[in-house]
Amino acid sequence: MNAMQFLVGIVFDLFLMVVLLRFWLQTAKADFYNPLSQFVVKATSFAVNPLRKIIPGFGGLDLASLLLAFIVAVAKISTLMLLFYGGWAAQTVFVSAFITVIKEALNLMFWVLIIRALLSWVSQGYNPIEAVFHQLTEPMLKPIRKIIPPLGGFDLSIVVLIIALQFGQILFMDLIG
């Protein structure tokens, strides 16, 4: 039973992260022609493009991607409720879907920061994935670097942001119970 819940949850969560990454890439104006960006666009365009006909962007935000993220979260919660709990409650599904989108967005930020930190240790020369991660995270890291500059070649801004994200996620989960 737990193995099946894990499998259903991970399939939805991975797609949800890709959809949220698409939103983040467009918000950060990351390089569209980067291989990672192209993968994300191709993996999500089958669902985002029809939604764009209904919901246009607003103020540079891709609202169709956000709506798709919410729809995927609703589908995840609904599937889990129907398969494992034998019922469906609309209010529970929509509130849980909203919480799921926020939680997965924070998880996505966490993993992008971790991967960026690891790549900075091992990459030699230009790496297209590292370049996109740099474009995504630099707007969040720059203000931290103004307060805590790199010390002896070590950039602690990523560690500070990871701690802040984890704190924010724990606080968010404590507030919603």
Please summarize what this structure is.
The chain has 177 residues and is an all-alpha fold. Helix content is 80%, strand content 0%. The longest helix has 33 residues, at 90-122.
List keywords for this structure.
mainly alpha; 177 residues
Low-confidence region ranges: none
The tally of beta strands, per DSSP, is: 0
By DSSP (H or I, 4+ residues per run), the number of helices equals 6
Basic shape:
globular
Distance between the termini: 24 Å
Class of secondary structure makeup: mainly alpha
Computed Rg? 18 Å
Instruction: Tell me the number of structural domains.
Output: 1
* Biggest sheet details: none
Beta content comes to under 5%
Mean pLDDT equals 91
> Helical proportion?
over 70%
Strand and helix order: HHHHHH
Q: Could you please describe the fold and organization of this structure?
A:
- The chain is mainly alpha-helical and 177 residues long.
- The protein has one domain.
- Helices cover 80% and strands 0% of the residues.
- The chain is built from six helices and no strands.
- Helix 1 packs across helix 2 and helix 5 crosses helix 6.
- The model has no long low-confidence stretch (mean pLDDT 91).
What topology emerges from the helices and strands here?
Blueprint: H1 2-27, H2 35-54, H3 63-84, H4 90-122, H5 128-147, H6 157-176
